[in-house]
Amino acid sequence: MEWLQKHIWPAEAKHVSGHFVHDGTVLACAEMLRGGTTCFNDMYFYPKAVAEAALACGMRASIGLITLISPTPYASDADDYLG
Fold first, then answer.
1. Rounded-to-integer distance, Cα 83 and Cα 80, Å
2. Once rounded to an integer, what is the mean pLDDT over residues 1-5?
3. Cα gap 81→31, rounded to integer Å
4. Domain-wise residue ranges, the chain
5. Is the pLDDT of residue 82 over 90?
6. Tens of pLDDT along 16-31?
7. DSSP code per residue over 15-81
8. Which run of H or E residues covers position 13?
9. Is 45 buried (19+), middle (13-18) or exposed (0-12) by CB count in 10 A?
10. Cβ neighbours for 22, distance < 8 A, ≥ 6 positions apart
11. How do residues 7-64 score in pLDDT, each as one tens digit?
């Protein structure tokens, strides 16, 4: 928990955005396609950005919605995640 609370979550709060997730997904798609992977599952923030990146890369994807109690750059509470 210390690693998450003191390192990962603050880094996500500072850097994660729809643009960040989209660009990261495009890079991940390129790597997967190069290795022969044609479909992936994703459960991160900004699912619309992931879907747009997957479509742009011509990849199939199963995209789940994440729901947390605590606020993140993507949503403020559990209801906001589902909204």
1. 5
2. 93
3. 29
4. 2-82
5. no
6. 999 999 999 999 999 9
7. H--HHHHHHHHHHHHHHHHHTT--EEEE-SS-HHHHHHHHHHHT-EEEEPPP--SS--SS-SSHHHH
8. helix 9-15
9. buried
10. 46, 49, 50, 52, 53
11. 998 999 899 999 999 999 999 999 999 999 999 999 999 999 999 999 999 999 999 9
Task: Tokens 């789940």: give the residue.
Answer: 64
Q: What is the model's pTM? A: 0.85
Contact 40, 57 (CB under 8 A): no
Asked if residue 38 lies in contact with residue 59, where contact means CB atoms within 8 angstroms, the answer is: yes
- Whole-angstrom Cα distance, residue 28 to residue 43? 14
Place of tokens 């729809």: 18
- Tell me the longest C-alpha to C-alpha distance in the chain: 39
The DSSP call for residue 83 is: -
